[in-house]
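Researcher: Structure prediction, please.
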Amino acid sequence: MSSTKPLGLRADDKDIFHLPPSTALTLLSRSIELLVSVTGDVPPTPPASAPSTPDMEEELHPTASDSRRDDAGFCFGNAVQDGLDGVVLKHRRDEFSDDDDISDGGEEMKIIGVGAKGAFQNGAITRKFWSKAAPGISIEDYLFRIHRFCPLSTAVYLAASVYLHRLAVTERIISITRLNVHRLLLAALRVASIGLEDLSHPHKRFAKVGGLTELELSRLEVSFCFLMNFDLKVDKAALERHMESLRETVNRQASMGTSGLVLPTTPPKESSMAGMGKIKMTVKPVMLDV
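Model: Predicted structure follows.
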């Protein structure tokens, strides 16, 4: 950690069991920084599609036409029809022809409504990671701050990178920008550490180092798991493939004139844990209202 020379990765570094955690952390930092610069500024949640608003209103305030979409074949609407106590059996629908607008419209609206509900829920989850303003600490400094006071393993840093790459690039569930990258990184590291390591840092300590409250961190952990659809399993082969991808990314950065794997000029001591109380553990730009 004391050297400021580039950490040029060699062929024998493909073995993740011999890759230093600081090198894996730098790989994570540079790849996420590149992803953020490519993404640019985007709004927190995209505007809802036109059909979504009326569909949600119909779900909250059912009408008589909604009764025809009941899968059980019963109608509990207020429409005046023949039947027993307002309950119309499924065979009553035979009165309508195949090209009837009411029947076709009802089935079509049901399909759109389901999709709109999923988009609405996804937007509500992703919004939890957005800040009102970009935090005043760089991605690399933020990650090395976590590494200083809550050091994690090489596998955790690589797994967090796998998670974020899947969300932002592979599945395109969320765009990583300056406004949400810090919260996403903190949640990804916490979830990965709990899943991969036998021992984890206290929740209160991890939240304080990351600049959040315990409640905020807990909410981010749960939201992150839902975004990942709880598919958090990674093995050695997957981590090695992803590390090779990160190596190529860093090499492209170096070829474009970007300094490759260079650690901070004054790297923190990994073993220094006694100064916790003397350091401002709250990063104000990160402490934002949800």
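Model: The chain has a mean pLDDT of 71.
Researcher: Thanks, that helps.
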